What we know:
Keywords: Signal
Distance between the termini: 64 Å
Radius of gyration: 22 Å
Protein name: DUF3221 domain-containing protein
Signal peptide: 1-25
Low-confidence stretches: 22-28
Pfam families: DUF3221
Number of domains: 2
Helix content: 25-40%
InterPro entries: DUF3221
CATH architecture of the largest domain: Beta Barrel
Shape: globular
Amino acid sequence: MKFTVQSTALFLLFFICLSGCSDNAEQSKKPAGYLVQGRILEVKQDEILIANVIPRDTALDYTTKEILGSSDVQPIYVKIPDNQTYKKGQLVKAWLKKDKSVQYSVPAKGEAVEVHILKQP
């Protein structure tokens, strides 16, 4: 009886340690840094302009200047790290470099480590 209780306790301790280690391994796969998510308003050669609260129709139909006049919009120019093709209106998620600070201008500027396209326009 005593052996069974000790074995069960040892098994539970091992399981807890194992699940804790797997959680850390999963977190290390995610890019570190500040996360930006929104719609692309403008595409330049090596950067994209992302705004956080823009509906798809607004991103496609209005000019950048018209949208930036709104006080609710928090746009940021993100320097892109890859040669992927981006289009106006796409919903994206971008992780900014942790060691580089965001330039707080209007609009703000940052450099991405990774960019994922979440939805096509």
